[in-house]
Amino acid sequence: MDETASLEQLVQRAKSRFEERYSRPPQWLAAAPGRVNLIGEHTDYNGGFVLPMAIERYCVIAASATAPATAGRFRLASTSVTEPLEFTTADLSPGSTEHWSDYVRGVVAGCLTRGMQLPGLDLLVESSVPLGGGLSSSAALEVATATLLEAVTGQEIPPLEKALLCQQAEHKYAGMPCGIMDQFSSVMGKQDRLMLLDCRSLEVSHIHLDDSAVTVLIVNSNVKHELTGSEYPTRRAQCQEAATLLQVPELRDATMADLSRFASELEPVHVQRARHVISEIERTQKAAAAISQRDWKSVGTLMYASHESLRGDYEVSCDELDLLVELMHEIGYDGGVWGSRMTGGGFGGCTVSLVRTDSVPSIAERVFRQYEDRTGIRPTIFSSRPAQGARVLR
Q: 351 and which of 86, 217, 262, 324 could share a cystine (Cβ 3.0–4.6 Å)?
């Protein structure tokens, strides 16, 4: 099991490293969590339902104002990236520079558009959210930035507006047409609650996941195939095309009966993509109901079905993710596993599993050993309770 630094440990590291770099203590600190999606994959940009939770992995940002003479200048550093970066408010034209600072620049631009008066800032980022693992490290950075700027200016952004501002930053500055799930999870996550999000109405229902006998286990395959950047926009476009051919505004509005009725007029790829989205929306709603009833076996069955749909119809899994799910399935109910699936955009990253808490050590040891034996890659394994969303720490 991977040792997860507590939020308090991350904050202390951020304070210390900020002072080392800038020779003074930070004035403000803010944190935002990553997220894992228990079920409901690639449904958010189709107007459907998702069931994520914020995780106990955080992005912490420390900051202090610069001298008045440097108003509009931002110095940005990260403990996981060697080279710091500077930008000014004159450098905020939309468009990706393919640098991680795009997420910060986009949020700064969005806050300025809201009329927030920002001083020049020295910033340092300390994060325990895995990069490229499908656990929303980018959304955590965006939301932590927005939350920090609220503290700096004393101007609160309503939670819904903050999530949308951060989503637009990713669209316009990072060039990724993501759905709303990641930012919503980071802003609105609650301790010991899953978040059932209707991605059309943006209505949130919190589902209790506070049974100490149940643990969410996350396994990072530690692979990321290069297909991801191009395949995500392609899947999104295919879904839009399928909705048009099915004569509905979004795939959220389509049914399996519609798909059967129009099947002869659709390309096979459109049938596959639509079948995944329609069935995944139904699975997500059923899973939320089953969790409310603590029917863990039914939840697990739905998770396995979700993975099969993502592997076969949506074609976003990969051999390593399939292997991790297969290993969990082999351990089975008797060994403490109720269900498992890939999570995130796909082509690598993580799986999420629902397991018995008392079986976590034995499950982790077996999966670690067998995955490494068969791939030559060491996975990263950690557990998480549903965590609280973004907050100002100072």
A: 324
